[in-house]
Specification:
Elements lengths: L1 E3 L2 E2 L7 E4 L8 E6 L2 E6 L9 E3 L8 E4 L2 E6 L8 E2 L4 E2 L9
Parallel strand pairs: 1-4
Antiparallel strand pairs: 2-3, 3-6, 4-5, 6-9, 7-8, 8-10
Length: about 100
Amino acid sequence: MMTANLALMIDQSDHVATAFVPLAAGSAIAVAAGSAAYRVTLRDAIPSGHKFAVADIAAGCEVRKYGASIGRALCAIPAGAHIHLHNLESLRGRGDRS
């Protein structure tokens, strides 16, 4: 069974959606923004307010949320995986980069 309206994706260029409520691993979620629409089976449990990949993301690639870059994938991130500090490097607000 496909569940809709449990997660938010703002821009069609986004790589992630944000969960409105806690989502169980194995849940089938539908998300869309503009002309981009995804059906994702979650690989991990996703806490409310956290992100999950709507499509596969290659290691080293920019990750987009709300139409803007939020960082770089530290490893390959498969569709449906939880995205957080363990697999995303933020490039914002770092004083060690010029």
